[in-house]
């Protein structure tokens, strides 16, 4: 089985897919849309096919200009199947290339829930990819509903799978939690952890204002933020203007093993994202035993039931998020433990990457 895996760049998620293909004996060729700053040649067992040298935010014309190069690479590699996404750029190129091969369109959630809603051109490109595909690969039922709404198609072959966690056990509560909290000097504080990047799509401004409002009511709250992004200057200025320097800890981008320590020392996980399918960050928080306060959007509602195993708040309302943070942080220990146990069962049932990937691979073989 030869698969052409075509993605925007060489992210952590891409590497996980590629490594799993190799593990199961699939010969996989890896093509990227953008030129990579980090070398991709180090991927063991993967044939790196290079880049189309096109920006992720390219319009339809610029993407179509890359089709001759894409076609040449396709003919040289001779795959049995193409797996491509995000939909609005990589998927679009495959969709208009007349590849005449099984094509599984892989949504990355933001392509459907954010990009396709931005403008007509993005929406058109996303629809072209979906309509040209042999099958759709999605991480939540919320995305499936979005695909149907966008295309008007009766449901084609599709596979809905949370991308999940590679090793759920690595997220179990760190036995060194207490000593880590002492080292950080945070034993007396309630720590809210956010691991989303500082981008509009992730509700950066909402999180800042929500925390400011909640902190006014509870000075014991601290926000640890592991991420970075294009809105970093706005974040810095807000913290300075509202004198939150002692209450907000900006951790920057962390390696995963370092990030696990902050999942261990935190008390709650918070995300104000405006768009998510099945959020890996949310699954990580649940697996780490953190009660969660997240935005009330379709993807999150598939994992979180308000006041049952977490809290939901309107993603566009800082005041509602602040009130929900305060409600969560005042909940009894017994109630929080009940939520934690429900979430651990949920993660073990739905988010086992190895088990999910095995069934995904079987689905791909059926598409050929």
Automatic annotation (TrEMBL):
Residues 178-341 form the Glycosyl transferase family domain. GO terms for molecular function: glycosyltransferase activity. Coiled coil: none annotated. InterPro entries: Glyco_trans_1 (IPR001296), Glycosyltransferase_grp1 (IPR050194). PANTHER family: SULFOQUINOVOSYL TRANSFERASE SQD2. This is Glycosyl transferase family 1 domain-containing protein.
């Amino acid at each position: 089985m030869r698969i052409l895996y075509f993605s925007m760049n060489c992210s952590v998620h891409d590497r996980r897919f590629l490594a799993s293909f190799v593990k199961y004996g699939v010969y996989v060729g890896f093509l990227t849309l953008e030129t990579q700053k980090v070398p991709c040649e180090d991927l063991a067992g993967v044939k790196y096919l290079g880049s189309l040298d096109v920006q992720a935010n390219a319009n339809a014309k610029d993407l179509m200009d890359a089709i001759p190069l894409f076609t040449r690479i396709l003919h040289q590699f001779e795959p049995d199947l193409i797996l491509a996404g995000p939909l609005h750029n990589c998927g679009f190129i495959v969709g208009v290339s007349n590849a005449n091969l099984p094509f599984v369109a892989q949504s990355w959630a933001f392509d459907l829930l954010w990009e396709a809603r931005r403008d007509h051109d993005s929406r058109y490109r996303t629809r072209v990819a979906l309509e040209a595909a042999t099958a759709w690969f999605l991480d939540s039922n919320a995305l499936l509903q979005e695909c149907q709404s966008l295309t008007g198609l009766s449901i084609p072959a599709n596979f809905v799978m949370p991308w999940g966690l590679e090793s759920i056990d690595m997220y179990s509560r760190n036995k060194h939690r207490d000593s880590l909290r002492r080292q950080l000097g945070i034993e007396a504080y309630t720590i809210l952890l956010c691991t989303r990047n500082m981008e509009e799509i992730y509700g950066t401004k909402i999180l800042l204002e929500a925390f400011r409002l909640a902190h006014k009511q509870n000075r014991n709250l601290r926000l640890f933020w592991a991420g970075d992004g294009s809105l970093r200057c706005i974040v810095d200025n807000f913290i300075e203007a509202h004198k939150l320097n002692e209450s907000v800890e900006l951790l920057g981008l962390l390696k995963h093993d370092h990030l696990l320590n902050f999942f261990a020392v935190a008390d709650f996980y918070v995300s104000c994202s405006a768009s998510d399918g099945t959020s890996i960050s949310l699954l990580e928080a649940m697996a780490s035993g953190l009660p969660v306060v997240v935005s009330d959007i379709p993807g999150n509602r598939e994992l979180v039931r308000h006041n049952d195993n977490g809290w939901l708040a309107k993603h566009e309302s800082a005041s509602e998020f602040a009130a929900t943070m305060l409600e969560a942080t005042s909940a009894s220990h017994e109630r929080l433990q009940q939520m934690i146990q429900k979430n651990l069962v949920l993660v073990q049932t739905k988010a086992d990457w190895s088990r999910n990937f095995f069934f995904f691979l079987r689905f791909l073989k059926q598409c050929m």
